[in-house]
Amino acid sequence: MLSLPPQVPLPPRQGAAALLCLLATEAVSAGFPSPADDYVEGRIDLNVELIPRPLSTFFMRVSGDAMRGDGIVDGDLLVIDRSVDPRPGMVVVAVHAGAFLLRRLARRGTGLWLVASDGTSPPLVLLSDDGSRDSGDGGGADLWGVVIHAVHHLAGAPSRRR
After folding, report:
1. What is the pTM (predicted TM-score) of this model?
2. pLDDT digits (tens, 9 = 90+) for 116-151
3. Is the pLDDT reported for residue 56 higher than 70?
4. Distance between CA 39 and CA 54 in Å, rounded?
5. 51 within some domain
6. 140 and 122 Cβ atoms separated by less than 8 Å
7. Are 126 and 105 in contact (CB under 8 A)?
8. How many domains does the chain divide into?
9. Does residue 2 lie within any of the structural domains?
10. What CATH number corresponds to the domain at position 35?
């Protein structure tokens, strides 16, 4: 059976502990390299940067590699906002057959589908062209939230969880 995370009210931003990290003055070039400055511009609060709506935001770990084509892999940390209106093209969390499912929302004809990016997982009908919600397996699916950030650990920066 699906166990939804409890909705725990968070303290307002004023008075809440800020998570301040150093912010470099220069953006990092992903194309032609540019000279780097050796100083720090200031600090940023990751709560403000990553969690625009605390009361509707949840964190989840990814289990599996069905979204590998989107750069989201097993063990990644997702920031999910339940107040965002899901639109085709967005990565979403759905509830299907009593479990959470991570997929990209896609429009095909007049229907809506949940599509994995690994190239092997079959798409799941969310809303068919005729307006029905049955996926053919009797399970159906309901959208639960929209992924607004994915934290992906790279080589040399292991997750603190493991």
Report:
1. 0.73
2. 999 899 999 887 766 566 555 545 789 999 999 999
3. yes
4. 32
5. yes
6. no
7. yes
8. 1
9. no
10. 2.10.109.10
Closest CA to 99 of 128, 67, 141, 64: 141
Which of 1-16 are b and which e, b meaning 16 or more Cβ less than 10 Å from the residue's Cβ?
eeeeeeeeeeeeeeee
User: What confidence tens digit (pLDDT) does each residue in 8-52 have?
Assistant: 444 444 455 676 676 666 666 676 665 554 555 677 788 888 899
The neighbour count for residue 67, using CB atoms within 10 Å, is 24
Per-residue DSSP letter, 136: S
Place of tokens 């899901």: 86
89 domain-assigned: yes
With respect to residue 156, please indicate whether it lies within any of the assigned structural domains.
no
Q: Which two tokens stand for residue 134?
A: 């049955």
Please classify residue 116 by burial: count the beta carbons closer than 10 Å to its beta carbon, then call 0-12 exposed, 13-18 middle and 19+ buried.
Answer: buried
Instruction: Give the whole-angstrom CA distance, residue 29 versus residue 78.
Output: 25
Burial class (CB in 10 A: 0-12, 13-18, 19+), 148: middle
66-94: per-residue pLDDT in tens?
999 999 999 899 999 999 999 999 999 99
The residues pairing with 51 across neighbouring beta strands, listed in sequence order, are none
How far is 50 from 69, CA to CA, in rounded Å?
23
**73: containing domain:** 20-151
